[in-house]
C-alpha cells in the first residue's frame, strides 16, 4: 500500500508537469535550442572536417618534416563541440526549467488548501514529498531524454554518426545536464517547503540560484582572488608595473609588465624562494578555484561539459581517465541536489499542519 | 468508536487542547461546539492523524491514531474546514484521485465517483474545480469525505458556505449516514445546524470539554436544575403548593405568574388550574435554546 501511494502521487505529479503550460513553453524552448544548436554545430563540424581533411592532404605533401608533423598533429574536429555550444545555452534554460518545475510544488498545495486533504488520505508524509520529487525527476528525465534524442536525430539528418567514445561522451553530457536541472529543481522544492507562498518560493530560489551560479564563481576570478587573498609573489630583481586596461563591475583587466631593476645577477636563494612562493600561491589558487567550482552547480556542469566535449585524439584522455578526472564534479553535482532534497524532506516532515 | 483520553496539544506553551476526554459511541452523530480558538479543529486534526498530540491519546475504532495513522485514515472520511482541491481538474478527477489511495479498482472508482457526485448534486458539472463556487466546493468536499465509504465521518464546519438547498442536502446525507450506522463527528459554530442533525453534543472552551451529552441533559445542566414557567389566566389563580417551587412572582391581579421550580411542574400547574375551574390562557416553560446553552457554557469555560 505504501508503494501504491507513492506511485499515485508521483504519477499525478508527473502528469501535472506534462500538462503544465510553463513546462510546455520551457521544453519547447529547450528543444528549439537543442535543434538550432545542433544544426549550427553540425554545419560548423562539416566545415571544420572539410578544412581538417584539406590540411591533412597538405601535410602529406609537405617536405618540411616539422611543419608536416605540426599539421598532422592537429586534432580531428568532433561533433562534441556542438554539444559544448548547446550545453552553454542549456545551462541557462535548464536552470530556469528546474526552478519553474519545483518552486510551487508544496506551496501550491498549501495555497489551494489541498495539502490537508492529501495528508488525510492513507499516506505517509514522506510519500508525499518523495512522490513529488519522483514525479519531477521523471518529467526532467523525459525532457532531457527528448532533447538528447533531438540532438542525435539532427546529427543523423546531417549524416553524422557518433562513434562509441563520442556516444558515451554525449551520454555524460546528457547526465550532467539532467543533474544540473535536477539540482535547481531540488533547490526550488526546498524553497517551496520553507516558503509560505509560491511568490516567495520563486524569489528565494532565484536568489540562491544567482548566489550559486554568479556570486560564488566571482571568487575564482583573478582580480577578486587577488583582492581577497593577495597578489602573486613578485619575481626577485624585477619591478612590476601594473596598469588598468578596462574594468566592469566585476572584472578588471590589468596588464603587468616586469622590468629588471638592475643588471645584477639574481640571488639563487631569492629565486628559489620566489619559485616556492609562486608554487604555493598557484596551488592555493587552484584549490580555491576547485572549491568554488564544486560549490557552484553551473561551474561543475561547465567543467564536465568542457572535458566531455574535448575532441578525441591521440593526446586526449580516455573515457575512464575522463570520468576519473571529473569524479569530484560528478559527485558534487549529485551531492548538491541530494542535500537540497534532504533539507526539503526534513522540513516537510516537520511541517506544521493547521 | 471515537475516544479521546486526556488528549492534549500545546503550541508554543499554550494548550490548544487541554486534557480532553471524550467518548463517542458507534452510530452517534456528535456535534462538537465551541467558540473560535476553542480547540475544535486541533482536536479533529489529531483525530485524523495530521498532528500528533503533545500528550494523551485518541483512537478510532479501537486503533490509536498516533501509533497507526494509516489504518485509522482508511476507516475515516474527513472534510476540513478550508476544503481544497486541484483547481485544474474536474470534480470527477479529484474524487477519482482520492479514491485511488483507498485501493479501489477502476470500475469501482467510476461507480463510486458517479454515485457521490449525484448524491451531492454535482453530477453533470464538467468544468474544472477552479470555476466552482464555495458552496460547490463544500459539496464536493462532502463527497470526497465519503469516497472510501468510511466507518467514521469527520466534518469540520460542513455548512459554512452552503446555500439553503445545500444545507438540506447536507442534513439528508448526514441522516442517511446515521441511518446506516456511520459515526459522524460534526464540528460547527452554526448551532442550529448541530441541533438539527446531532444526537449528542460536546462543548469545548479553551481546549477543554466543558459539557457533553444529549440536548436535554445539556439544557438541564445549563439551567442549573431550574425551570422557569410563565402562567397567564383569565381570572386570578391560587398559590401553587409544591415542594419543587423555588420562587413565584404574581401580578397584582394574580392573573399572571412567573414560577421558578427545580423541575418542569407545568403539568401540575395545568391540573390545579383545571380543578379550580380557572381559564388557562398561556402556560410556557422557558427552555434555553442551543445558543443560550452554548453561551452559558462558554462563560463557564472561560471564567
Provide a concise account of the structure shown.
The complex is a heterodimer of chains A (354) and B (303). Chain A has helices spanning 2-19, 21-61, 65-72, 80-102, 107-111, 114-120, 125-157, 164-194, 198-215, 222-229, 268-295, 297-308, 319-325, 327-349; strands at 238-247, 252-260.
Features:
heterodimer, A: 354 residues, mainly alpha, 2 domains, two-stranded antiparallel sheet, 2 strands, 74% helix, B: 303 residues, alpha/beta, Rossmann fold, six-stranded mixed β-sheet, four-stranded antiparallel β-sheet
Plain-language structure description:
The complex is a heterodimer of chains A (354) and B (303). With 354 residues, chain A is mainly alpha-helical. Chain A has two domains: 2-221 and 295-349, no CATH class; 233-288, no CATH class. Helix content of chain A is 74%, strand content 5%. In chain A, α1 (2-19) crosses α7 and α2 (21-61) packs antiparallel against α3. The two termini of chain A are 26 Å apart. Chain B has 303 residues and is α/β, with parallel strands linked by helices. In chain B, 35% of the residues lie in helices and 29% in strands. Chain B contains ten helices and 14 strands. Chain B has helices at residues 40-47, 69-75, 91-100, 106-119, 134-145, 164-179, 191-197, 215-222, 266-276, 290-302, and strands at 2-11, 14-24, 29-33, 55-60, 63-64, 76-79, 152-156, 183-188, 200-205, 208-213, 227-233, 245-250, 256-261, 280-286. In chain B, β9 and β10 form a beta hairpin. In chain B, α8 (215-222) crosses α10 (290-302). Classes of the chains: A mainly alpha (354), B alpha/beta (303).
Amino acid at each position: 500500500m505504501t508503494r501504491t501511494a507513492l506511485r499515485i502521487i508521483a504519477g499525478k505529479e508527473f502528469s501535472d508537469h506534462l500538462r503544465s503550460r510553463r513546462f510546455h513553453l520551457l521544453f519547447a524552448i529547450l528543444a528549439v535550442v537543442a535543434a538550432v544548436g545542433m544544426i549550427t554545430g553540425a554545419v560548423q563540424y562539416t566545415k571544420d572536417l572539410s578544412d581538417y581533411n584539406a590540411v591533412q592532404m597538405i601535410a602529406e605533401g609537405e617536405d618540411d618534416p616539422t611543419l608536416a608533423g605540426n599539421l598532422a598533429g592537429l586534432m580531428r574536429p568532433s561533433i562534441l563541440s556542438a554539444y559544448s555550444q548547446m550545453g552553454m545555452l542549456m545551462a541557462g534554460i535548464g536552470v530556469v526549467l528546474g526552478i519553474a518545475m519545483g518552486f510551487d510544488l508544496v506551496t501550491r498545495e498549501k495555497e489551494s488548501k489541498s495539502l490537508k486533504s492529501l495528508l488525510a488520505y492513507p499516506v505517509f508524509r514522506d510519500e508525499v514529498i518523495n512522490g513529488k520529487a519522483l514525479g519531477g525527476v521523471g518529467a526532467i528525465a523525459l525532457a532531457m531524454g527528448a532533447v538528447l534524442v533531438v540532438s542525435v536525430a539532427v546529427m543523423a539528418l546531417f549524416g553524422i554518426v557518433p562513434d562509441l567514445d563520442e556516444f558515451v561522451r554525449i551520454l555524460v553530457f546528457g547526465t550532467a545536464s539532467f543533474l544540473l536541472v535536477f539540482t535547481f529543481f531540488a533547490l526550488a522544492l526546498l524553497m517551496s517547503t520553507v516558503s509560505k507562498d509560491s511568490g516567495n518560493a520563486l524569489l528565494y530560489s532565484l536568489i540562491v540560484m544567482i548566489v550559486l551560479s554568479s556570486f560564488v564563481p566571482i571568487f575564482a576570478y583573478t582580480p577578486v582572488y587577488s583582492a581577497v587573498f593577495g597578489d602573486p609573489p613578485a619575481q626577485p630583481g624585477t619591478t612590476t608595473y601594473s596598469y588598468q586596461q578596462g574594468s566592469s563591475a566585476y572584472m578588471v583587466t590589468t596588464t603587468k609588465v616586469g622590468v629588471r631593476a638592475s643588471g645584477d645577477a639574481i640571488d639563487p636563494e631569492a629565486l628559489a624562494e620566489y619559485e616556492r612562493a609562486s608554487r604555493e600561491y598557484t596551488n592555493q589558487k587552484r584549490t580555491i578555484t576547485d572549491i568554488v567550482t564544486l560549490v557552484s552547480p553551473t561551474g561543475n556542469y561547465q567543467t564536465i561539459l568542457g572535458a566531455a566535449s574535448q575532441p578525441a585524439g591521440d593526446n586526449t584522455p580516455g573515457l575512464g581517465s575522463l570520468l576519473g578526472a571529473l569524479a569530484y564534479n560528478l559527485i558534487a553535482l549529485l551531492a548538491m541536489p541530494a542535500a537540497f532534497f534532504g533539507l526539503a524532506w526534513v522540513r516537510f516532515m516537520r511541517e506544521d499542519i493547521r | 468508536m471515537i475516544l479521546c483520553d486526556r488528549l492534549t496539544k500545546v503550541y508554543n506553551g499554550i494548550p490548544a487542547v487541554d486534557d480532553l476526554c471524550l467518548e463517542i459511541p458507534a452510530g452517534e452523530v456528535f456535534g462538537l461546539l465551541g467558540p473560535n480558538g476553542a480547540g475544535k479543529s486541533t482536536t479533529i486534526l489529531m483525530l485524523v492523524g495530521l498532528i500528533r498530540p503533545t500528550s494523551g491519546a485518541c483512537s478510532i475504532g479501537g486503533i490509536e491514531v498516533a501509533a497507526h495513522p494509516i489504518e485509522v485514515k482508511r476507516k475515516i472520511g474527513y472534510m476540513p474546514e478550508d476544503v481544497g482541491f486541484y483547481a485544474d481538474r474536474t470534480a470527477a478527477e479529484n474524487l477519482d484521485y482520492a479514491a485511488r489511495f483507498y485501493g479501489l479498482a477502476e470500475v469501482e472508482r467510476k461507480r463510486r465517483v458517479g454515485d457521490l457526485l449525484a448524491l451531492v448534486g454535482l453530477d453533470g458539472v464538467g468544468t474544472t474545480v477552479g470555476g466552482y463556487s464555495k458552496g460547490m466546493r463544500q459539496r464536493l468536499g462532502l463527497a470526497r469525505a465519503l469516497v472510501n465509504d468510511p466507518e467514521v465521518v469527520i466534518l469540520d464546519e460542513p455548512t459554512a458556505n452552503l446555500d439553503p438547498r445545500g444545507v438540506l442536502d447536507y442534513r439528508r446525507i448526514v441522516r442517511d449516514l446515521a441511518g446506516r450506522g456511520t459515526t459522524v463527528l460534526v464540528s460547527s459554530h452554526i448551532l442550529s445546524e448541530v441541533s438539527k442533525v446531532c444526537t449528542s453534543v460536546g462543548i469545548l472552551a479553551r481546549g477543554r470539554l466543558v459539557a457533553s451529552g444529549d440536548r436535554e441533559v445539556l439544557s438541564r445542566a445549563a439551567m442549573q436544575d431550574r425551570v422557569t414557567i410563565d402562567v397567564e389566566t383569565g381570572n386570578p389563580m391560587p398559590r401553587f403548593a409544591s415542594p419543587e417551587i423555588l420562587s413565584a412572582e404574581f401580578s397584582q391581579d394574580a392573573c399572571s405568574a412567573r414560577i421558578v421550580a427545580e423541575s418542569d411542574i407545568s403539568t401540575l400547574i395545568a391540573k390545579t388550574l383545571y380543578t379550580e375551574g380557572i381559564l388557562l390562557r398561556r402556560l410556557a416553560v422557558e427552555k434555553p435554546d442551543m445558543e443560550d446553552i452554548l453561551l452559558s457554557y462558554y462563560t463557564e469555560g472561560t471564567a
